[in-house]
Amino acid sequence: MREISVPRDAFGPSGIPAARVPVLLALALAVALLGAAAADPVLRLSIWFVALTLAMLALTILGMGLRQKHLHRLRGAAFDALVKFDDDAVFLSDRDGLIERSNGVANGLFPLAPGEHAGRFLAFLVAAPDELFCELRQGALAAGRAQRRLTHLKGAPLLVLTRVGLDGLLWRLTDQGADGAQSLLGGAVLNVAAAPLARDTDPSGVTALTTAHNGGPYREQVLEELPVPILRIARDGTVEQANRRARQLLEEIDVVGQSLSAIVEGLGRPIREWLNDAYDGRGLHRPEVVRMTPGNVDLYLQITLGQIGAGDDMRLVAVLHDATEMKTLEAQFVQSQKMQAIGQLAGGVAHDFNNLLTAISGHCDLLLLRRDEMDPDFADLEQINQNANRAASLVGQLLAFSRKQNLRPEYLDLRLTLADLTHLLNRLVGEKVHLYYSHDPALQAIRADKRQLEQVIMNLVVNARDAMPAGGRIDIETQVETLTEPLCRDRVIVPAGVYVAVRVCDEGTGIAPDKLPKIFEPFFTTKKTGEGTGLGLSTAYGIVKQTGGFIFADSVLGEGSRFTLYFPAHLRGDPGLGAAPAPAPDTPSKPRDGVVLLVEDEAPVRAFACRALRLRGYTVIEAGNGEEALSILADLALRVDIFVTDVIMPGLDGPSWVKQALVARPATKVIFVSGYSEENLSETQASILNSVFLPKPFSLTQLTTTVQEQLS
Question: Which of 273, 303, 326 represents a domain boundary (last residue)?
């Protein structure tokens, strides 16, 4: 049941807070002044009408609020006169269930306060307070009265709800035929607020409350019967009683006689200080989340404290709620936020690094153009080029993790893809590990980037190899699976449909259950320091998710692990799913004519690209940003055949300035370049005719060939 502590009279009609009245009046005055400045008489009258409407709305809210306060006072006075000293537990609430008044018996039995919701009172009595509240409220508002016999409680008390006026509900807990609500406590007449309390222990080990009735002891069993977990706590912090529901929640650990501070921890301040505040009336009815101390059950508890009794006989009651799932979800949310932040960082670093790699490999290409294999510097330049390519591969892993890498999807038959990869995989696993393949004869195609998918398979196979230091067997299986209904696992929902499943199974050491949920996190590794970066599985996760698939892991310690990948199955004839264009071949392009406007904010990249294009015979005009490019293009007599522009730049980005430039030059061809994925540009690029995308880092040949093809 929701917790509400705002009184109803804080709102005006339609639920508008009365505190908004000054705001509405100020707004009305401002609109009126605006109207006075209007030159057009008709416009002036229209604005004044709006101002008058705002002022009337504010006064209406104020009047309704005053009327509700007046009715609230009248209803409270009537309640005090009629039932304040009643023997039954009686509450008065508004029609929404917000408690306004309660008599002495109710105050003694239930730790509630004005402004709280009646659902909290019902939670002491039944297991489904929401349903009971709605049922009784609907019946009382419709017929004037509704009731429910609580047969599961001792004495089977009667809960009666009566409508009071137009906007009030009277809650009464009674036992017809006995002496009021006190029969709930076993049949004795008891003034709960003032009765002397004593301690006694029953044979079950549960401490009971006793009181004197006509000189005889009385064993109170109300806490034991309540359908919510409750502890009763003495002034020194010792747990005196745990009812049946509490014992079940705590998995029957013996907490009676122990200090609460020895049972729970994690409040952020001493538990004893928290209890002292509650005995002094501070912090009551405010839930706090704590965890069970190590050695007890693995449990988070939400505890709300209230008082029973008075004076030296006062005790605290702690209402417990299992908050383990809530804390788990909170931890998962925090982890997802960390993953997102690291992903953004990785994407940003990779973008900047791609600019550096473009400049390094590009200038290396320029140097290689003037040298042959006999040149003494040729081998060094080749080493620079190869290491730049290796760095580009690492950047690809970062982008895969952040799900911002450039994918070139195409139809793939996994049988052929794995066959092409077999030789490399055999070299990776070595002689002690053997690979076995099993394929579904009716295997369907998937749509993915072949290079990236190969990276996923290699990462999984290398992990499997490392988990079997003494050797073993790795099975790679492919199978078509049809999900007739969504598959829910690991907080992920796989929609119903036809999928191609890929499974990589090993006979290794397995993954501990506490580590299994973390294996796809970046930089998390179960290997020793220096043996793993923790990027392999996070890279695989990023690639699979960006491809539109799903990846799951199962493992048993000492038996091995199994990774399952699900990819949507495709028929090769699916409309609108043509194969991706092949990357530009690394062959020199012929010299060509043409004027290129090159717009790039990174000076090293711009310098390399300009020299590369000029070497191929193009006339190149340079610009450092979109604003400079538009300034150059303001001269309509200037001929420009093609725009080559970075996508992400300070000020105007690539698509923005290109759209403005194409207004006067609609036939100009466009090449967008970026270290981010083409996916981020796809919708914008689709609206720009004659445009293509070239991912960074690109080589000299790839740049000049792409320009040549666009101008052809």
Answer: 326
Nearest to 290 by CA among 306, 318, 268: 268
* Both tokens assigned to 226: 């309540």
Closest CA to 451 of 534, 500, 393: 393
Residue 540 and residue 528 in contact, taking contact as beta carbons nearer than 8 Å:
no
Q: Are residue 367 and residue 218 in the same domain, yes or no?
A: no
Query: Do residues 387 and 301 share a domain?
Result: no
Position 575 in a domain: no
Query: What tens digit of pLDDT does each residue of 252-308 get?
Result: 888 899 999 888 988 778 888 899 888 888 878 788 888 888 776 778 898 988 888
Secondary structure string (H, E, C) spanning 626-694: HHHHHHHHCCCCCCCCEEEEECCCCCCCHHHHHHHHHHHCCCCEEEEEECCCHHHCHHHHHCCCCEEEE
Handedness of CA 250, 256, 257, 261 (dihedral sign): positive
- For residues 513 and 504, give the distance between their C-alpha atoms in angstroms, rounded to a whole number: 19
> Does the residue 436 lie in any domain?
yes
Residue 156 one-letter amino acid: A
Tokens of 527: 């290997």
Looking at 568, 603, 618, the residue that finishes a domain is 568
In this structure, is residue 535 part of a structural domain? yes
Is the overall model pTM greater than 0.85, yes or no?
A: no
Q: C-alpha angle with apex 218: 245 to 259, nearest 5 degrees? A: 45
Q: Return the C-alpha torsion angle 387, 526, 341, 685, nearest 10.
A: 50
Q: Which residues constitute the domain of residue 346?
A: 329-391
If asked whether residues 151 and 292 sit together in one domain, one would say yes
Distance, in Å, from the CA atom of 301 to the CA atom of 289, rounded to the nearest integer, reads 6
Using one digit for the tens of pLDDT, what is the confidence trace for 547-593?
Answer: 889 999 999 998 999 999 999 998 754 443 444 444 444 444 455 67
- Give the CATH number, domain containing residue 190: 3.30.450.20
